[in-house]
Design a protein that fits this description.
Elements (H helix, E strand, L loop, with lengths): L1 H27 L7 H21 L7 H21 L8 H33 L6 H18 L9 H20 L6
Helix pairs in contact: 1-2, 1-3, 1-4, 2-3, 3-4, 4-5, 4-6, 5-6
Length: 184
């Protein structure tokens, strides 16, 4: 039963953490708050972000309340996972704070990878989908520098593949950073 509980906790907290980070990304991309993607993200996260924003505010164009909420989500996930395993969460309290930072980085890189993959698939299947402008607005700042370096191959855009590879490398580096704190 412990494996099932950890699996469910992982899915729930990873999805919620990703939605919190997507909120930050949408705001950094200056997406209008009235589009359906933004509205959904705001509705799912407002209950946590709005109270935190009153305390933390936002500086430098980054919604620190969302970033802190994602980190807090990672901390709660770690404590819940450890508690389900039958270990006292207080046994690894200081390490959990750093592991949560690494988890948020992992969630952010995974979010970039999945949004890019979704954008590519949607561009093949339904390029006129209502979510397409949002996906393009989110991924273009990441793909534009790659497109400047990559040679043009006619109608074939290899920039998403390069970004996908870069995200995989970043995930490997993040995993390596987190290993000392996971006791591996």
């Amino acid at each position: 039963m412990g494996d099932i509980a950890r699996f469910i906790l992982n899915i729930l907290f990873t999805l919620f953490g990703a939605v919190l980070l997507l909120r930050v990304w949408l705001q950094m991309a200056r997406m209008p708050p009235f589009n359906t993607v933004s509205q959904t993200v705001f509705k799912v996260t407002d209950w946590l972000v709005i109270p935190l924003r009153r305390v933390l505010g936002s500086r430098g164009g980054i919604d620190w309340a969302c970033v802190f909420a994602a980190w807090l989500c990672a901390v709660v996930f770690l404590f819940a996972t450890v508690a389900v395993s039958g270990i006292s969460p207080l046994d690894f309290f200081p390490e959990a704070l750093w592991i949560a930072v690494v988890m948020v980085l992992k969630w952010a890189v995974n979010l970039v990878m999945w949004i890019t993959l979704l954008m590519v698939i949607m561009s093949w299947v339904n390029p006129s989908a209502p979510a397409m402008p949002v996906l393009i607005a989110l991924t273009d700042p990441l793909l534009a520098p790659i497109r400047r370096v990559m040679p043009s191959l006619g109608g074939l855009d290899l920039a998403p593949i390069v970004l996908f590879i870069l995200t995989q490398v970043a995930l490997m580096v993040i995993a390596r950073i987190g290993l000392p704190f996971l006791g591996m």
